[in-house]
Design goal:
About 70% of the residues lie in helices and about 10% in strands. By secondary structure, it is α+β, with helices and mostly antiparallel strands. The longest helix is centred in the middle third of the chain and has 84 residues. The structure holds zinc ion (ZN). Zinc ion binds next to loops.
Length: about 260
Amino acid sequence: MEIFTEEFESFILFQELENILIDNRKKLAELELKKLNLNEIYKSKVEELNIKNEALKKKMIEKKEIENELMTVEAEISKYQIQLNQVKKNDEFKAMLSQIETLKLKKDDIENRIIEIIDMVDNLSKEINDIKNNISEYERVKKAEEDSIDMKKTAIELNIKEILDKQNDVLNNIKDQATKIKVDNIMVKKDRLAIAKVKAKINEAHKAKNEDYFCSACNMKLTSEEASSVRKAKTFIICQNCSRLLYLEGIEYDRTKK
Ligand SMILES: [Zn+2]
């Protein structure tokens, strides 16, 4: 199906402006995503810091508890040592001595645990320090990137506004209402791409190396009749597969045909 319109060029311009808008909106979405990613990374770093801080807090409490345990055992040892001097019977003396030995072993064990915990606390503190440094460095990077993203966004938004104004001008000057409505309907249904170029590929199989034509939006091959229609001046054809308006770019129109 052919659509002849005097405002052929305006419709193409309208779509080209729309393509720039599509492209710009895609760029805006990508920038927005970049910002989200920056925040996600930041959040995960803070989360990591919180987990390490929590672990450190637990270790400090554990250390305090074991230190208390140590004090209790030490007090018991001194108590028994005082009692040891007052014991008269040999059996009691031996029993008490062995109790003191057991307590001393317990004390050694506790002291080893304290050393282990101090090591853990040291490592955790070092890790926390590293994470904090990393976070403040990342805050600087993040801020710089966000500023740059915002600048890009502002420029794109400005560009979108200008293109929209231009596009409105083009649209308001088009008098061919029938084609205008058609284009508008396709735009709504087909992701804002209503008018597409025809792409040509040399068909090597033909002796004359004829060109085959395809819809650049859906890749449907044009029939020879459609290929001839699309060469006519100011004429779109409708893609049988995707319903978009197709045109051939940059050809010498055969003005005798219409
Ligand atoms: Zn198509």
